[in-house]
Amino acid sequence: MSALSWLNGEAFTAVGQHILWSDMIGNTIGLAALALGWRRSIWTWPAQLLSGAILVGAYASAQLSGGVGKQLLVIGVALWGWRQWQRGSRQAQDGSIAVRFASWPERGVLLGGTAVGTLAVGGLFVAVPELSWNPWPDAYIFVGTLAAMVAQARGLVEFWFAWLLVDIVGVPLAFSSGLAFSGFVYLNYLVLVLWGMRDWWLRSRAGAPSLEGAAA
User: Fold this and answer.
1) CA separation for the pair 167, 47 (Å, rounded)
2) CA distance 16 to 37
3) pTM over 0.90
4) What is the C-alpha separation between 38 and 47, in angstroms, rounded?
5) Region class of 90: left (phi > 0), else alpha (psi between -120 and 50), else beta
6) Are 42 and 85 in contact (CB under 8 A)?
7) Could you give the CA distance from residue 7 to residue 132 in angstroms, rounded to a whole number?
């Protein structure tokens, strides 16, 4: 049996849901990546890369081409985010990434880009039904995930708000797609998102005076 066949095999069954190895392992690593993001550790990016690579198999087995495409883009954005954090242009005193709230123009770009991207991707999924059997929620999660990662790469507190909005749709969609472990992980994401949001919020407020002084 090949590694790919094993990853796409069934790990166990819980409450009538078939749990795939790829779904379980990929999302567990994704959960660890989010926890590392909360800690502002650069290791969040290689963890996201590995999670995305494994989840490609999970979505392929569920015949969710849109999900496969999303994970491939996640891998690409994770490489970019990793490079952004490696540059160390905005490092805190403890060596981790410094965080801040986005400016209003940055928020406008994030919101506008997410809205336009969702319409474009949703339209593509509608035009090509084999890409997704549930086009608009899939497009929303697809683009929302990328927006969250871009905000994370820039050290923006809004990263957590984006993840929260993704989770609201991601939990029911994962269960309805037969990826039960993804659904359970999304529920755990909610806890980490709220915790991480509070931590980054407080750190951005504590670091604001020093950042302003550095800018001056």
Assistant:
1) 19
2) 33
3) no
4) 13
5) beta
6) yes
7) 22
Residue 67: pLDDT over 60: yes
Tell me how crowded residue 207 is: count the other CB atoms within 10 A of its CB.
Answer: 17
pLDDT digits (tens, 9 = 90+) for 97-115: 788 999 999 999 999 999 9
Q: Are 98 and 90 in contact (CB under 8 A)?
A: yes
Q: What residue type is 92 in one-letter code?
A: A
106-109, long-range: CB within 8 Å, 24+ apart, which pairs? 106/154, 106/156, 107/158
pLDDT band at 142, cuts 50/70/90? confident
Q: In angstroms, rounded to a whole number, what is the distance separating the alpha carbons of residues 215 and 40?
A: 22
In whole angstroms, give the CA distance from residue 37 to residue 195.
11
For range 153-178, the mean pLDDT: 86
**Dihedral sign (CA 82, 203, 35, 148):** negative
Cα gap 80→93, rounded to integer Å: 23
Place of tokens 């697809």: 142
Q: How far apart are CA 203 and CA 36, in angstroms?
A: 16
Backbone angles phi, psi at 95, to 5 degrees: 90, -10
Whether pLDDT at 60 is above 90: no
Cα–Cα distance for residue pair 89/74, rounded to 1 Å: 23
Residue 87 identity (one-letter amino acid): R
CA-derived radius of gyration, the chain: 18
